[in-house]
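Lab notebook: predicted structure, single chain.

Context: the supervisor wants predicted structures on file for every construct in the current expression panel, including those that have not yet been purified. This is the next one on the list. No modifications to the sequence; it matches the entry in the shared construct table.
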Amino acid sequence: MIEPTRGVRVSVTLYALSTCPYCRMTRKYLEDSAVQFDLHEIDLLDEDARTAAVAKVRELSGGASFPVIVVDDEVIVGFNKKRIKELLGL
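Prediction complete. Output recorded below exactly as produced.
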């Protein structure tokens, strides 16, 4: 969790694929911005965990595109730096 400049604590979760360039860019952006986040690299999970994680991604985003970033209850699909900045107050 981070304390963004607007002083609100947020929960951040990143659903990603280890081989996806946009997922890597998203992860690097969050790390470079000192954002603490939960990371789920779907392709590196065992079969049962992967199945559950893909189901969660579909529930959150309506599809199976990556990355999926969840900031509190807001879902961002893809690397949308502008929206990430807005939600985190960066």
